[in-house]
Specification:
Oligomer: single chain
Strand order of the largest sheet: 1-2
Order of helices and strands: EHHHHHHHE
Strand content: under 5%
Helix content: 25-40%
Radius of gyration: 18 Å
Structural class: mainly alpha
Distance between the termini: 16 Å
């Protein structure tokens, strides 16, 4: 049966409570930290000579689609009525947005150590200890807008420029690709300062704290952010029905990207699925 992912602002109080309860149940069982480990393991940059699947590569979007599905399946084993909501960061773009309420994601980190002190994922409430990460923090941290070097969330205009791309991706298939929807949405640029970060990347920078880097899954808002990224890919696919995943075939031997990225019909570790296999989602879920 097809289920629906809703905008987080449209969730009822009961739906918020059920989502939070399911996330906390996965945390208590140790399963949430397995998802953190998966993301850290597959977070590799352009400079890494190994296979890249999660970031800075064409499979950024299908890899995270499958990752979201795996997490959602785990949540629905706890509560079959729960789905992952999405956060439209072009609309709910201030710390006052309902997203950050005490009954949902909690608020910003405090000055000094950036520790989140409110909401169900605050360390002080005893239910959310960081067990797997790339820092020594045992508590969730956030730094909305990065006051030291202020940054804002992406605008509708910035997102529209990405949505206007008409091909999925382009060589050299990494963070330096100058055309293509994937890199425009992922948000890598050659600019300096805060101009380096666009769309998906800029959201991670705006939230700050543990949302920076491979351990970003330690902040549950990660899932809401990536659900919106997935929704955007879904809309782009509808707009460009003939623009499939690229590259369709693997880079040739001798190419800088040979065996470093996956083509349309190649497996995306750690799962036995391909970008082609997850290109369509409408038989599994839809967006409200």
């Amino acid at each position: 049966m097809v289920y629906t992912r809703k905008n987080q602002r449209d969730l009822s109080a009961a739906e918020r409570k059920r989502f939070v309860a399911a996330v906390l149940a996965l945390k208590r069982a140790g399963r949430y930290d397995d998802f953190v480990r998966t993301h850290i393991e597959h977070y590799r940059s352009d400079g890494d000579r190994r296979l890249r699947v999660a970031h800075m590569a064409p499979s950024f979007l299908p890899w995270h689609r499958q990752y979201l599905l795996e997490f959602e399946r785990a949540l629905r084993e706890v509560d079959p009525g729960v789905t992952v909501p999405y956060w439209d960061w072009t609309r709910d773009n201030t710390p006052a947005a309902s997203l950050w309420s005490e009954d949902f994601m909690g608020g910003n980190g405090r000055r000094g150590d950036l520790q989140v002190m409110t909401g169900p994922f605050a360390y002080v409430n005893g239910h959310w200890t960081i067990e797997v990460g790339v820092t020594d923090h045992r508590f969730l941290t956030r730094d909305f807008g990065n006051p030291a070097r202020p940054i804002e969330l992406p605008t509708k205009g910035e997102l529209a420029r990405a949505m206007d791309e008409t091909v999925y991706d382009s060589a050299p298939w990494n963070s330096t690709s100058r055309t293509g929807f994937r890199n425009a949405l992922e948000g890598w640029t050659s600019e300096r300062g805060n101009g380096r970060w666009r769309n998906h990347n800029r959201v991670h920078r705006w939230v700050g704290g543990l949302m920076l880097g491979g351990g970003s899954v330690n902040d549950p808002v990660f899932w809401l952010h990536h659900a919106f990224v997935d929704l955007l890919w879904s809309r782009w696919q509808s707009r460009n029905p003939r623009a499939g995943y690229l590259p369709a075939t693997p880079p040739r031997r001798g190419s800088d990207q040979h065996r470093r990225i996956v083509a349309r019909d190649e497996r995306m570790p750690p799962w036995d699925v391909t970008p082609a296999a997850v290109a369509a989602h409408h038989r599994v879920y839809r967006y409200a």
